[in-house]
Each structure stands twice: as structure tokens, then as C-alpha cells.
Write a structure and sequence with these properties.
The chain has 690 residues and is α+β, with helices and mostly antiparallel strands. It is 27% helix and 28% strand. It is built from 14 helices and 33 strands.
Length: 690
């Protein structure tokens, strides 16, 4: 890169490649997609998907409804330092065809790549991104196994998103030094809550129990809600190998029956986990609430607890349902001591939910698909998990504690890592309006009350799930920031993440700040240092959260494809969950999603309406739109790519398609000219992340 002067009118942004040769550039600082530039084929200037680039917009204005065109004149920063794909052999040369159809290929593997066989899933480190005379080149870094298997695909996805299942030796060594129990000297300066009835409520398979709750009444009869969170910062000193590794990871990653933890299991499942009937160090947020659920007083304190019970969501849901409890008397007897508090907790949770709803908090009813695996890790069932009373209870209490801590730090003007969620952008609001119009719904404003009114209108209607999904997609992504910008979805003026320091670094950072405040150290140089650390943690954690979410989605597709491979030829009820030029995305009732290609729709030429999200037949007028129920047949499923193909039930076998969903063949160079490779272009854990 040179420092030569840029032409007037240039714009810097991120290049986003499409799979058909063109792309878009999103300018730096733009809030939505309305400011994007269209990059025509052969105008990408050597840029790859995700690269930071400089573009020169065309002087001719864009037509109505179109984006202004531009061409890339310089690549400023490369995004794809490593690339995963499939190894192919051509004569004595080794090539890697990238997994992503938004990257050019093939990539010539140079250096010592002999250990990779044709058909291996592998990763290369890029040494050259190619030119008019030379192909892109890279050196072999990892071999994950045979292409086509779910195991190799998962390993490649984790590698691609820089998610390492293994911890460095120095980190493991420090984790091994952690005590297995709480020594007496660690209790100095802590509020002793071991005599209180404190419980955890988690999934039956959870092992990292970082939050516990209690509820009692004060002398005035007011409820005092205790949210007790594992004091992870006590065991993870700032700047230590454990801390630096947790900062790099940012979050734990959950998929199917596995987890890649942020902290080694010696901590996350051991001394930091609030296991039953053992002493554990915590930070407690004790909130006194009036009859309407308003916090009228609070205390945040270093504490020690000893949980009375390790409760599960399922058991609590039974205990809180009189009919189910009558069928399980032994469960009632076992938890007789806990039951009165649990019932009062359920009542309080209802009060808190109503209070949030009245202020505008969005109640996006959603179900979550989860994958059941057998003893070997293979998927055997896909189920839908819906929130019960106990799940909503815990979520409600955690939200209250997060808000209380955020307001506490903000009012004291102390550093914090806030969880922020901004209001929808104008272009997303317009898109939502256009999508709602064919269904007969109007939306004047995209404020919380208007959106909630819409959700209530459709709650019991057939199109309800589709509209709920539309609203969810219209919202901005929540992120972390050192500035308090509020949380639109929760209608909360103050909000942070305090309740999961085992699996989220921002929570650990908030704990570190609170501890310094409680110990009287949050001033002068210490405060400045923690403020700078909070800013860096907000940026890093936001990036790592996006990577974790993307990896979890991609991995889930592989598991679901392997599951559906055993159901090829069977029919299922589903609904249109997405519409594109090349077909319809169909979601089954259990959450499995696949593509129904446009070329296998009833014989016609279909036109795509991006605004209304529908495909309409030119001759028949048949329309396929978002949310439309359809009966589909599973035509194919590939665990290696995660692709699942559907066709309409009762239709003829699909015509051969030249489209994007075909299994890639080896696009090897057929000939070379002056050294240039001539290539064929390629066509939780059950807790919401609020």
C-alpha cells in the first residue's frame, strides 16, 4: 500500500461479495444498507469478501430504487488471512477450493502440502491474493478430515472463526492452580449469605452454574430479590494468562451437545460454578421491590453463598403447575422447603414482566430449536424448546439485576461495559412496512409500543410467527459499548451484562469494575485503566460475539443436514422463512431450514419482488411469499455443506439445476498461460442474548 493521493470523491468501506461476480461496499460509519454502493462484475479491483477498500463512485446517478455503482480502486486491509476449503490435486499441484462461494478460487497450495490428500477439508494461510498473471496462493495450515463429514465441517468452521477448542498450556497451568474449595481467608470482607435459601435453576445438562437467586420479605413486607453471581474475577486476575485468553475468546460457544468454553473447565465447572451445598464466592445484587415491581432500594456487595438446591427448569415447571405437581407428589415432597419461595418468585416474575411490557419492552415470543445427539455425538432428533414459567422467571430476574447494576455504575459516573441496542434504522423500518403491507398490516412508527401492538395483533393468527420473525429481523443487532446508549428492545434506559461472567467477557469486566468500586480502589489511575479496558473489551467482545453466533449457526446447519439425510423422501409441513431470486427458504415446524429452488417450482418464469419478499409466476400468477405455509418433501441433505433441499410435496422430481446449490466439483485449472491458473468461477444453552 502506498501513501499516494486518493482521487476526489472516494469512499472507504467494506466490500461484500456476492456469489455471482458482483458485490457491494458498505461505507464506514453508515447506519444501514441504504448508503451501499453496487460493485459490478470485474470492478472489484482484486478485493475479496470482507476486505476494507477504497471505491470511486460513478458520476452517473443511480436510477430509482437502484444503488449507485462504484469501482474498487484500492484494497486497504485484507480480511481473509486464512481460508478453509477442499483439497484437489492437478498433476503434481495441490489446490484448495474455498468453502465460501463469496471467495475466488481455486487457491494454489505452495510449500509443504503433501500431507493433504485430495478430498480433505483443510485450511491455508494466504501468501498472495493473486493478480492478472498469477493465482492466489497459500500455505497449508491444518487438515480437518475428509470433506463431506459433519465432523470435518465443524472443525473447519471453528478454525475459520478463530474459535480454538484447546487452551494454551500456560492458561491450563494457571487453571490447575485454582483452589478446589473456598479457604476461610477468602471470606474476609464478604457478606455471609450461607444461611439464606439460595438456589440455582438451569438446564439439566448445564455444568457452568454462574447465577443463583433468593427471595425473602423485609420487615415492611416488601420483596427482597437476591441475584448472586459467581465471582469469577476473584480467580481470573487482570492481565493473567487466563484473563488474556478469556479476552481473546470473548464468549463461550455452544452447539448441539458441545461447548467451547471461555474459561477452562477447571474453573467454569469447578470453583466458579455455584454447585449445590458448597461455599462459593459471589457478587450479590440485592434489590428491594415495591408491590409494582419497582426497585426502591438496592445493595451490591461481595458475598459468600452456599446454594441449597441445584434446580432444573423442568422440575421447577412441574412444581409451578398444580396439575403436573399432583401427578408428581414425590417431587413436591422433595422440594417442600423450596416451594413457597418458588411460588412467590413466579408471582414476582409476572409483576416484573408486566412492568417491562408497560414501559414498551418487546415480547418477541420465540421458540428455539435444539439438537439431540446420541452417545457418539450424531444428531438423532431436532426438537423445539419453548420457555416455561421457570425459564421466564430466571430471565426476568437476570434482566432486573443487569439493569440495576448498569444504573448503579452510570449514576456514580464510573466505567462500565453496557449492552446497547439502538432503534431500527430508517431503511429497515421501510423494509418492514413493505413486507407487512401484503398481509394487511400497517406500521406508522417503529417505536416499541407500535411494534408491540403489531405483535399482539398477530399473536394467535396463522401469520403470527412470520410477522414476529419480520419484526425481529428489522431490529438492530445488540452490541457492547462503554457509553450508555440504552436498550431499545427492552425499553431500558440502563442495561449491562452482569450475570454470566463464566461465559461472557463483558460480565467479567463489569465484575472487575464493581470489585474495585466496593474495595475503594476505583479512582485515579485505577479508574482510568479500567475505563480504557472497558472500551477495548466492548469492541473485542462485540466482534467475538458476532463470530460465535455465525459459527453456531453454520455448525447447526451441518447437524441438521446430517439429521435430515436420514429423512430424504419424507414430507413435512413448513412455511416460507425467506425469499430470494433463486428460491424459497422453508422452515419446518421443528426449526430445520432448507431451500426450495426456484427452478423446481411449478413450471413458470418467476419474478422476484425484493420489497414484498415474494416470487410471482409470470404465466400463472402463482405467488410464493414470506410466511406462506407449504407442504414440502426433503429432496437432499449434505452434512458437509449444511445444505438441505426441498421440493413441493406431490410435485415431479426436480429438474437438474445449474444453480448455486449443486455440490461443487473440483474447479481445477484446465490450462495455464504464462503461469496464470485459469479457473472456473463459482456460481444455549437456552438463554437469550439480550
Amino acid at each position: 500500500m502506498t501513501n499516494e493521493k486518493q482521487p476526489a470523491g472516494t469512499v472507504t468501506g467494506v466490500y461484500q461479495a456476492a456469489s455471482r461476480g458482483f458485490g457491494f461496499v458498505t461505507p464506514e460509519g453508515s447506519a444501514g444498507r441504504e448508503a451501499d454502493f453496487f460493485i459490478p462484475p470485474r470492478a472489484e479491483g482484486g478485493a475479496w469478501n470482507g476486505d476494507k477498500v477504497t471505491v470511486l463512485p460513478e458520476k452517473v446517478p443511480a436510477g430509482e430504487g437502484a444503488k449507485r455503482a462504484a469501482r474498487v480502486i484500492r484494497v486497504l486491509e485484507r480480511a481473509n488471512r486464512t481460508v478453509t476449503g477442499v483439497i484437489h490435486k492437478h498433476n503434481r499441484e495441490t489446490w484448495l477450493q474455498p468453502d465460501s462461494d463469496r471467495l475466488p478460487g481455486p487457491i494454489q497450495v505452495v510449500g509443504k502440502g503433501s500431507r493433504a490428500r485430495a478430498g480433505d477439508k483443510a485450511a491455508v494461510a494466504m501468501t498472495s491474493f493473486g493478480s492478472a498473471k498469477h493465482p492466489p496462493m497459500g500455505t497449508l495450515r491444518e487438515v480437518f478430515g475428509r470433506d463431506g463429514s459433519r465432523q470435518a465441517a465443524v472443525a473447519a468452521i471453528l478454525y475459520n472463526y478463530e474459535i480454538d477448542p484447546e487452551f494454551p498450556a500456560a492458561v491450563l497451568a494457571q487453571a490447575e492452580e485454582a483452589p478446589q474449595s473456598v479457604p476461610p481467608e477468602a471470606l474476609d470482607g464478604r457478606l455471609d449469605l450461607r444461611g439464606k435459601v439460595v438456589i440455582t435453576i438451569d438446564g439439566a445438562s448445564s455444568k457452568d452454574l454462574d447465577d443463583a437467586v433468593s427471595l425473602e420479605r423485609d420487615e415492611e413486607g416488601r420483596r427482597v430479590l437476591g441475584v448472586h453471581i459467581a465471582d469469577v474475577s476473584h480467580y481470573v486476575p487482570a492481565g493473567s494468562p487466563l484473563d488474556l485468553e478469556a479476552w481473546e475468546r470473548g464468549t463461550s460457544v455452544y452447539f448441539a451437545d458441545q461447548v467451547v468454553p471461555m474459561l477452562p473447565r477447571q474453573l467454569s465447572n469447578g470453583i466458579c460454578s455455584l454447585n449445590p451445598q458448597v461455599d462459593r464466592l459471589t457478587l450479590s445484587c440485592l434489590m428491594t421491590l415495591d408491590a409494582d415491581g419497582a426497585v426502591v432500594g438496592h445493595t451490591i456487595v461481595k458475598s459468600v453463598i452456599r446454594t441449597a438446591e441445584r434446580m432444573t427448569y423442568e422440575d421447577c415447571n412441574v412444581l409451578l403447575d398444580p396439575e403436573r405437581l399432583a401427578e408428581s407428589p414425590s417431587l413436591g415432597e422433595r422440594y417442600a422447603r423450596i416451594l413457597p419461595m418458588l411460588k412467590d418468585m413466579a408471582v414476582l416474575a409476572g409483576v416484573l414482566e408486566r412492568r417491562r411490557k408497560l414501559r414498551g419492552s418487546l415480547d418477541l415470543e420465540s421458540s428455539e430449536s435444539y439438537i439431540v445427539c446420541d452417545g457418539s455425538g450424531a444428531p438423532v432428533e431436532v426438537r423445539t424448546r419453548r420457555q416455561g414459567v421457570s425459564e421466564r422467571l430466571i430471565e426476568s430476574f437476570m434482566l432486573s439485576a443487569n439493569e440495576c447494576v448498569a444504573e448503579h455504575l452510570n449514576r456514580l459516573e464510573k466505567p462500565a461495559v453496557y449492552r446497547v441496542h439502538e432503534k431500527p434504522s430508517p431503511d429497515k423500518t421501510e423494509t418492514l412496512r413493505a413486507m407487512l403491507a401484503p398481509l394487511g398490516y400497517t406500521l406508522r412508527q417503529a417505536d416499541q409500543f407500535s411494534l408491540q401492538k403489531l405483535l399482539e395483533q398477530v399473536r394467535d393468527k396463522q401469520e403470527g410467527p412470520a410477522v414476529s420473525t419480520m419484526v425481529l429481523r428489522s431490529l438492530m443487532k445488540a452490541r457492547y459499548d462503554a457509553a450508555n446508549l440504552g436498550h431499545f428492545g427492552l425499553a431500558a434506559e440502563y442495561y449491562c451484562h452482569f450475570t454470566s461472567p463464566i461465559r461472557r467477557y463483558p460480565d467479567l469486566m463489569v465484575h472487575r469494575i464493581l470489585t474495585a468500586l466496593l474495595e475503594g480502589r476505583l479512582r485515579g489511575g485505577t479508574e482510568k485503566k479500567l475505563a480504557a479496558a472497558a472500551q477495548k473489551a466492548a469492541v473485542q467482545s462485540s466482534q467475538r460475539e458476532l463470530a460465535a453466533q455465525a459459527a453456531e449457526r453454520e455448525i447447526e446447519k451441518r447437524y441438521m443436514a446430517e439429521y435430515m439425510a436420514g429423512h430424504v423422501g419424507e414430507t413435512f409441513p413448513g412455511a416460507v422463512s425467506g425469499v430470494t431470486r433463486f428460491g424459497l427458504f422453508i422452515m419446518l415446524e421443528n426449526g430445520v431450514e432448507g431451500l426450495l429452488p426456484a427452478e423446481v417450482l411449478p413450471d413458470d418464469a418467476y419474478h422476484y419482488d425484493e420489497t414484498r419478499m415474494c416470487l410471482t409466476g409470470e404465466r400463472t400468477g402463482a405467488a410464493f411469499s414470506f410466511g406462506m405455509p407449504l407442504e414440502v418433501l426433503c429432496a437432499a441433505a449434505d452434512p458437509g455443506s449444511g445444505q438441505i433441499d426441498f421440493r413441493l410435496a406431490g410435485s415431479e422430481a426436480p429438474r437438474p439445476s445449474p444453480g448455486r446449490r449443486e455440490k461443487k466439483s473440483a474447479p481445477l485449472p484446465a490450462q495455464k498461460r504464462r503461469g496464470r491458473a485459469m479457473h472456473v468461477p463459482k456460481g444455549r444453552r437456552g438463554r437469550k442474548r439480550r
